[in-house]
Amino acid sequence: KETIDNITTDPEIWLDFLKTASMNYTNSFSEQLLIYAQRKEAVACAEITTWNGTYKRFVNTGCPGIGLLTENNGNFHIKYVWGLNDTHSIYGRKGKKLKLWSVPKVYEEQIVESLENKFGQIENKDNFVEAIKSLAIHLTDDNYSDYFNDLIASKVNTRLENISNDVIEKNYKELLKNSIAFMIINRSGIEPTSYFNYTDFSNISFFQDIETISQLGTAISDISGMGLEEIYLSLKNIRIAEIE
Question: S-S: 50 plus which of 46, 78, 197, 216, CB 3.0-4.6 Å?
Answer without folding.
Answer: 46
